[in-house]
Amino acid sequence: MKSTTAVTIGLGATAAVVVAALVQAAGEDPIGTALSMSVPAEYKSRIEDAGNTCPEVTPNLLAALLTQESGFNPKARSPVGAQGIAQFMPSTWETHGIDGNGDGKRDVWDPEDAIPSSAKYLCTIAEDVENVPGDKQKNMLAAYNAGSGAVQKYGGVPPYEETQNYVRSITALANQHQGGGGKVATTEQAATAINAAKGMLGTPYSWGGGSASGPSTGTCCSPSGRTGKSVSGFDCSGLTLYAYAKSGITLPRTAAAQYAASEPVKPGNVKPGDLVFYGSSAATIHHVGIYVGDGWMIDAPRPGTLVRYSPMDTMSDLFAVARPTSNSNKEI
Questions:
Q1: Which class for 215: exposed (0-12), middle (13-18), buried (19 or more C-beta within 10 A)?
Q2: How many other CB atoms sit within 10 Å of the CB of residue 159?
Q3: Domain, as residue range, for 143
Q4: What is the CATH number of the domain that holds 231?
Q5: Which residue among 28, 34, 234, 267 sits deepest, i.e. has the most Cβ atoms within 10 Å of its Cβ?
Q6: Residue 20: how many CB atoms within 10 A of its CB?
Q7: pLDDT tens digit string along 146-196?
C-alpha cells in the first residue's frame, strides 16, 4: 500500500508553526498498556480491538502502520490516490473494506471502518505470504506496501528501498517501547551530542560516510549519482549517529530508522538535541539534523557541502521532530 505524507509544510513557515502542525496531525494522547505508542485517544479502543484480528497483527503494529501511512489523519489522500487513515487504494478498498461500525456503509474515510479493514487486510496478506521464508510479520508488512506478488517473487522482503524502509520503520515503532521501554535522551546527553556535532562543523559531506568513531569514507551512489568513496566525512545520519554515540546512545544507521527509534515530541517540548526529520512519510525520510535552538540545526546537507548550521525550514518537507531513546540500540 502506497505511503502518504502526514503533513506537508511550505518552505518559509516558521519552525514553531511547522512543529505544531506536525504534532497536531500525529496526535498527542498517550495510551494504556495494550498499546505502548502514542495515538489519538479516539482511536485507542478501535486499534486495540482490531489489533487482535490474527496472530501476525498486534495493537502496536497496527498503530505503527497507521502512524506511517497517514499520521492518523482520516482525511489523508496520497498523490497516487490512496485514501483515508489506512491509505487504501480504491480498488483494494472495494475488495477488502468492511463495515466496521455496523452503520450499513463501508466508508474508507471513516476510521471506524478503515481501521478494522486495515487489520483484516493485513491478516489476508499474511495468509497470502505464509509460505514465504523469513519473518512472517515483516513479509506481511512488505506485502502491504509492495504487494504479495513481490514478496513471493523475492522470497521475502523485496529489494525496494521504500519497502525496506517501510518494514524497518513500522517494526521499530511497534517494538521500541516494549519490554520495559527506553528513556529519552537526557539534557546532558543532548548537550554532549550537540557539542560533538559542533566539533565536526566544516567536515565534508560524504554519501554513506561517518560512524560512531567519526568521519569515514562513504559509499556509492547517491540518487544523483554522487559517490562518497573518495571523501572522508559524514552524510546526514552518519553525523547524528556519531554525535549521539558520544552521549552513549547508539542510533541506527539510516535517517528513517533513526526516526523509528526516537520519540516524537510536542511543539512545547522541542529541545536542543532533538532530531529533525524530513520526508513525505516515515518510510521515505531522507534527511535528519540535530536541533540546536531558535529554529536552527546542525546537519550534513548533501554532496558538495560541509557540516553546517541550517534553518529548520531549509527543506520544504519537514516531517517530524523526535528525541532519541536509550533503547535506540535495538537491531532494526
A1: buried
A2: 9
A3: 31-175
A4: 3.90.1720.10
A5: 234
A6: 15
A7: 999 999 999 999 999 889 888 988 887 787 644 444 578 899 999 999 999
171 with 193, same domain?
A: no
HSE of 283, CA atoms in CB hemisphere, 13 A: 28
CA dihedral of residues 235, 240, 242, 248 (deg, nearest 10)? -160
Cis-peptide, bond into residue 236, ω within 30° of zero:
no
User: Which residues fall within 8 angstroms of residue 58, CB to CB, at 6 or more apart?
Assistant: 51, 52, 174
Quick: pLDDT tens for 218-250: 998 888 889 999 999 999 999 999 999 999 998
Angle at 227 between CA 221 and CA 230, to 5 degrees: 150
Grid coordinates belonging to 275: 532530531
Whether 69 sits among the annotated catalytic residues: the reply is yes
Residue 52 CB-density burial (10 A; 0-12 exposed, 13-18 middle, 19+ buried): middle
Q: Comparing C-alpha atoms, which of 224, 232, 186 is closest to residue 208? A: 232
Residues 6+ apart with CB under 8 A from 223: none
Query: Cell 468492511 maps to which residue?
Result: 98
Q: Are residues 201 and 316 in the same domain?
A: yes
* Active-site residue, from 56, 69, 112, 263: 69
All cell numbers assigned to 238 = 552518519
pTM to 2 decimals?
A: 0.58
Residue-wise burial string across 264-298, b where 16 or more C-beta atoms lie within 10 A, e elsewhere: bbebeebebbbbbbbbbbbbbbbbbbbbbeeebbb
Q: Assign residue 281 a region: left if phi > 0, alpha if psi is -120 to 50, beta otherwise?
A: beta
CB 1 within 8 A of CB 81: no
263 φ, ψ (degrees, to nearest 5)? -105, 115
Residue 277 β-bridge partners: 288, 320
Q: Read off the C-alpha cell for 217.
A: 569514507
Cβ count near 73 (within 10 Å)? 22
pLDDT digits (tens, 9 = 90+) for 49-59: 999 999 999 99
Q: Which of 225, 194, 243 is nearest to 304 (CA)?
A: 225
Which of 136, 155, 175 is the last residue in one of the domains? Answer: 175
243 contacts 193 by C-beta, under 8 angstroms: yes
What is the predicted pLDDT for the residue at 11?
33
Is there a single domain that holds both residue 70 and residue 111?
A: yes
